[in-house]
Amino acid sequence: MLSHLLIKNYALIEHLEMDPDTALNTITGETGAGKSIMLGAIGLLMGNRADTKALYNPDEKCVIEGFFKVSGYLIENLFEEADLDYDSTCMVRREISPSGKSRAFVNDTPVTLDILRRVTSHLMDIHSQHDSVLLGSNEYQLEIVDTYAQNDALLRQYRTDYRTYRLKQEAYEQLLTETATMKKEFDYNSFLYEELHKLELQTDEQELLEQELTILENAEDIKERLQLSSDYLDNAEQSVVVYLKNVVNNLNYVTRLTDRFSQLRDRAQSALIELRDLANEINTEEDNIETSDARVEVIRERLNLIYQLQTKHAVKTIAELLDIQADLEKKVSKILNSDAELALAKAENEAAFQQLMTSADALSASRREASPEIEERVGSLLADLGMPNASLKINMETGKPTYTGVDTVSFLFSANKGIKNQQLKNVASGGEFSRLMMAIKYILASKRSLPTIIFDEIDTGVSGEIAIKMGNMMRDMAHSHQIIAITHLHQIAAQGKAHYFVYKDNSGNRTVSRVKKLTFNERVQEIAQMIGGNNPSASVLKNAKELLSQKASS
């Protein structure tokens, strides 16, 4: 439950701190005094959007901080899933910088707004006037049934199965689409693949063939040039080798006279050996050069096929052609094996659907079981709230699976005897909505281990004895929950164990909203003013005192 609330630099609030009581807290004040501002600040802790326009001083940071006592509420796993430190006191903080940057913290650990919402949704439930509008929506009505039926575990299982089914369904449908497309292209892809496959292309083949073709086309000229090169090097009559042999002989002679010329002789001898070896290799290459018109024709045809395929597929290398061949092989193979793959995907999809429907049936059964009990309890509470002839009927229809199940829930309502129940949004007035919402919140409170419940003027449209009964219901709920009720009704304000008064302070240069916890005598004065205006009579003051005394003794 909320043990401490700090609001700094938010809207008309410069600095506000309060320590709510563990039971029923009532908050009163004139319209526009700042009650809704407090609720907006708490909404930021719930993960609502932040706006720099809400800064009291646009040059300073806005800070909203709440301390919650959470021991005994079995939410440790929530902190573990979010990788957060758990402590018996949970601190939630929201900061808004003047630049508009928003930051959120749980136990001093920075968190995303999504994690902030997950955490605080287990700490607080805020009923605003907007919820009365929501009550008319089928989605919200379904949430009410699930909350009362305590379907959290069934919903988690169903949603897990729903996500699995959707993945299997999407995979199967995608495979169907891909297969249909590939089947249309199968003949063409198969032709392209066979055209490439039968050539048995090799990665370096093109370069080797182009080199061989160049040699064959210039064979005579090459042989002639090699022959001349060989003659220059090693002709018996006159050549480089003959002259070099004479050099070696001369250097041998002088070396015998002195070792000074031995290095020159050795170098000349090595050069002679190298040139003879070069001459032999040139002769070998010359002998290997052949002229073959048939081979030229074979190579030209092969290269022409390669060039045509490269042009056809808009590539420049055999490596790229081989990549295309591999891709075509996959496509062709996939079609050839598509029946088996489709059968497997279909079977997995059907199995996921069957599992989904098993979970959906269990969820639907729980909802149907809870619905009559909700109808009975709400009807009884509405009678206590001055609507003895009101009735609520919960209609359930089954349809296609969605994220929330296969059920569509409709609350059908009638406030008067003999009048047919109709869609709630079409027949309920403001006061009836308020009483119905109060009854629903009352029965849900016993089904949720929720520390704090905040009511924002849930008493709209009611007064008198009904307001007293609503106050009694809130006080009853406060035995197991911390209740914070913003109200304009003295009957409800008097029920609070703690009473806070919100007011505007105009003593400075700028209006500021402030809140103070009222003493008993201050409560008497405030409730008397709520009953009889700014100058309550002695009898009204006595009435207010009696209301507070009755609450204290009950």
Automatic annotation (TrEMBL):
The keyword Nucleotide-binding applies. Residues 2-508 form the RecF/RecN/SMC N-terminal domain. It comes from the Bacteria. InterPro entries: DNA_recomb/repair_RecN (IPR004604), P-loop_NTPase (IPR027417), RecF/RecN/SMC_N (IPR003395). GO terms for molecular function: ATP binding. Pfam families: SMC_N. Keywords: ATP-binding, Coiled coil, DNA damage, DNA repair, Nucleotide-binding. One of its GO terms (cellular component) is bacterial nucleoid. The keyword Transferase does not apply. Residues 199-229, 261-295 form a coiled coil. Belongs to the RecN family. PANTHER family: DNA REPAIR PROTEIN RECN. May be involved in recombinational repair of damaged DNA. This is DNA repair protein RecN. The lineage of its organism: Bacteria, Pseudomonadati, Bacteroidota, Cytophagia, Cytophagales. The gene is recN.
